[in-house]
Amino acid sequence: MKYQTGVGAATRGPLPSYRPSNNALARRTDPDTSHQAAIQFVVVGKHAKQMAEVLNTLRRINASGVVVTSAELAAYMETDRYVTARRLPDLRKRGLVEQCQKTTCTVSNTQAVTWRAI
User: Fold this and answer.
1) pLDDT at residue 23 in the model
2) Each residue's pLDDT tens digit, 65-115
3) Of 16, 23, 73, 117, which cross-links 59 as Cys (Cβ 3.0–4.6 Å)?
4) Which of 109, 113, 97, 53 lies closest to 78 in space, CA to CA?
5) d(Cα 47, Cα 82) in Å, to the nearest integer?
6) Which CATH number fits the domain 46-117, given the four candidates 1.10.10.10, 3.65.10.10, 3.90.190.20, 2.170.130.30?
7) pTM for the structure as a whole
């Protein structure tokens, strides 16, 4: 069993068992520290919070009939593009959003898929 290290580790106890899957936040080939960070990300609620923020913002934008790329959504949210780029596929796996047509992104000026909340 793996144990947490660092500040406050003695009070946190052992880490839960982690098995990579199709919806894993860390790749099977990533080091243990990445898997530990992924577990913490979920346990403290950051993963769920980010998904909720992305989904709610996308719903507000889509309500006006507009679909956006992950970079456009990130710019609207004033967050890093990687937050939206990682959470949108998570939301798609849960059946909450879908990919739409490709378009030229107004942020990156490259071809990118657009997203819509279901």
Assistant:
1) 52
2) 999 999 999 999 999 999 999 999 999 999 999 999 999 999 999 999 999
3) 117
4) 53
5) 13
6) 1.10.10.10
7) 0.71
Q: What is the DSSP string of 24-62?
A: -SS-TTS-HHHHHHHHHHHHTTHHHHHHHHHHHHHHHHH
pLDDT score for 41: 67
* Structure confidence at residue 18 (pLDDT): 40
> How many other C-beta atoms can be found within 10 angstroms of the C-beta atom of residue 72?
22
Percent of the chain with pLDDT over 90: 59
3-state secondary structure of 72: helix
Instruction: Report the C-alpha gap between 15 and 2 in whole angstroms.
Output: 6
- All CATH 1.10.10.10 domain ranges of the chain, comma separated, are 46-117
Query: Could you tell me if 38 and 26 are in contact, meaning their C-beta atoms sit under 8 angstroms apart?
Result: yes
Q: Which helix (H) or strand (E) holds 111?
A: strand 111-117
